[in-house]
Amino acid sequence: MSQSLKITCLECGAVNRAPSDKLGAGPKCGTCGARLMDGKVRELDPATLQKASKTDDVPLIVDYWAPWCGPCRMMAPEFQKAAQSMSGVARFAKINTEDFPKVSMKANIRGIPALILYQKGREVARQAGAMPAKSIEDFVRAKSQTIS
Ligand code: ZN
Fold first, then answer.
1. How far is 4 from 68, CA to CA, in rounded Å?
2. Alpha-carbon span 112 to 70, nearest angstrom
3. For this structure, is 9 an active site residue?
């Protein structure tokens, strides 16, 4: 059965509702028209991260990273690959912990890269260390609830 899911627009921060069986059909933000599930990795600011992580029913996976971190840079293309192949299922985003150190303190991040999976307004799981795309996908699939 189709459910109405809350999903925050990562461009403008507006909270949208989308039917769970339409997530693969490219739903758009009712406020700014941006695509809500397009398989792209978005750089978040703390306000958007806060809102989406506390609101969204759709799995949101956030890569806590920094430009000086070699393993983070190595993982970036893998993270993008996973985002693309899970388009319509989960959303992928990044937060630059060098620009926003308070965010990683608040999330209690001890080492980067660190992935945190949020769903239904709370943290569901986290995983530290660089991973290939396949392992990222497996992690998200294993820890998130099916939404359709
Ligand atoms: Zn929007």
1. 40
2. 10
3. no
Q: Provide the residue type at 17 as one letter.
A: R
Interval 12-57: pLDDT, tens: 999 999 999 889 898 999 999 999 999 999 999 999 999 999 999 9
Superfamily per CATH, domain 39-143:
Glutaredoxin (3.40.30.10)
Whether residue 72 lies in the annotated active site: yes
> Cβ neighbours of residue 102 under 8 Å, at least 6 residues apart?
46
Domain coordinates in residue numbering, the chain? 39-143
Residues 6+ apart with CB under 8 A from 10: 34, 36, 42, 44, 48, 52, 91, 93
Of the listed 9, 12, 32, 72, which one is catalytic? Answer: 72
pTM: 0.95
